[in-house]
Specification:
six-stranded parallel beta sheet; two-stranded antiparallel ribbon; 10 helices
Length: 226
């Protein structure tokens, strides 16, 4: 009788707030600002500020709904032009915000033979340069719908938030022979709780107050990355 090969392990990382200090709002503002003439940037930002207050309130109610509504800011934008900015935003804005401790931790998992997977609600074209820089194995991220070369502002799937992250991780584990019980997950917010709870080794990074309390009560590993 043949003995089944042992399952592999993986380290799943949330991105915003976990790997780096940024949000989908900051990335959009950088992208949009880069497309506006210099003398109009401040006017645009002033006009956008009231929306930020609305988004903060919406995010506190439902992060899934917030993502759906926020990504409509991309409606009507030229898809190729926006995607072409992904390398520029990475070099100019995102790369300096990656936590050095995150880079070191990823290297540790690689040396242990684990697959490293980014699981994020951020858009795929923004996350891909991060994945390339960190040389990770896979990216689980949402994509925007496109029609006639323009973004529609709608996602091709449900936002990768909360339970959807855990579902994506389970699908990945099934497809790649990963043992979730022996795997790791890193997250920073309450919305990451489902992804943390679906692995045997949850790790919280710069946690929100509610997640810190949950981690302390559960005996989970905690890190403060600067």
């Amino acid at each position: 009788m043949s003995v089944p090969a042992p399952k592999k392990t993986a380290a799943f990382f949330d991105v915003d707030g976990t790997l780096l200090k940024s949000t989908i709002v900051h990335c959009y503002i950088w992208i949009r600002s880069s497309q506006i003439p210099f003398f109009l940037k401040h006017l645009w930002l002033i006009g956008f500020l009231p929306k930020i207050v609305y988004y903060l309130i919406l995010d506190s109610i439902s992060r899934t709904r917030f993502n759906q509504v926020f990504y409509r800011n991309y409606r009507g934008k030229n898809a190729a032009e926006i995607k072409a900015l992904s390398t520029k935003i990475f070099e100019a804005y995102i790369r300096p915000k990656i936590f050095s401790e995150a880079v070191s931790q990823i290297q540790v998992h690689k040396e242990q033979g684990a697959a490293v997977v980014l699981v994020t609600g951020s858009l795929g074209f923004i996350v891909q340069p991060i994945a390339d820089y960190l040389d990770v194995d896979s990216v689980l991220a949402p994509q925007l719908c496109e029609e006639d070369g323009q973004f529609t502002g709608e996602l091709t799937t449900a936002p990768l938030i909360g339970d959807e992250k855990a579902k994506a991780m389970r699908n990945y584990a099934d497809q790649h022979g990963i043992s979730l019980e022996e795997s790791y997950a890193y997250g920073d917010s309450q919305s990451d709780l489902p992804m943390l709870e679906c692995v045997g080794n949850p790790v919280v990074v710069n946690p929100s107050k509610s997640l810190r309390q949950k981690a302390a009560a559960s005996g989970w590993e905690m890190h403060e990355w600067l």
